[in-house]
Amino acid sequence: MVTLHFAEASPGTAVLVDGARLAAVGPYEELAAANQDARLRRWPGILTPGLLNPYGPELLEATYHPDPREADEYGTEPITGERAREIFRADPARRGASARRGVQRLFAHGTVAVAGELRDRSVLDAVRRAGLAVGQRPPNLPGPPSLSPTPLVLLPALAAGGPARFAVFDVPDRATLVREGAGTCVATVLGGRLVYRAR
Fold first, then answer.
1. Buried-most residue among 4, 36, 53, 54 (CB within 10 A)?
2. Which of 50, 21, 94, 23 is nearest to 187 (CA)?
3. For residues 32 and 175, what is the distance between their CA atoms, to the nearest angstrom?
4. Is this structure's pTM higher than 0.70?
5. Which phi and psi angles does 193 have, rounded to 5°?
6. Distances (CA, A) of 33 to 5, 29, 116
7. Please, what are the domains in the chain?
C-alpha cells in the first residue's frame, strides 16, 4: 500500500512511499491531492533524510547493550570500556544479540546509516538484516561516540526514486534538532518499513 508521510513542521517535504522506494517528494497538499487513496501518517515536527552515525564499530562492536532481562545485573544503559570487553570475552555469542539491541537504539535516534569498518560477522549480519545503510566516516569525527553525536550528520536530501529511508524528529526546525539532539526522534523508516515509532 502507498503511504504518505507528512510532518507538521515541514509540510514542504512530504514523502510518498511505495514499497521500499520514494514514489514522490514534495509539498504535502500537492501529494495528498494527487494520491487520495494513500494511507496517511501524520507526524509532529520535521521530516528529514535521517542521520548517519559515524561510530558503527564503537557502538555496535565495542559496546554492550544489555537485554532488559539483565537489568538487575547490568542495568539498562549501554556498557563500554573494559566492562564491555569482559562481557564479550566471557561469552562471544552475546555480541550479535547486543548489536541487534544497539541497532534498535540507533533507530530510536533517527539513524538510518552507520559508518566505520565493522569486522565482526554477527554485527555485520545485524546491520544488514536491519537494513541500515553503511557509509563512509566523515574526515573529522564529531566528539566521543554517542547515539546522538555532536554535530549530527544528516544524509543528503530525499528524492523521488530513492530509497524510502528517513526519520522524523519532534522539533520545530533543524536548528532545534541540532541543539536538542537525536533523542527527539519520533519515527524512523528504512526500506519503506516503520522500524521505530516513539510511544
1. 53
2. 50
3. 27
4. yes
5. -100, 140
6. 14, 6, 42
7. 3-49+157-197 (2.30.40.10), 52-135 (no CATH)
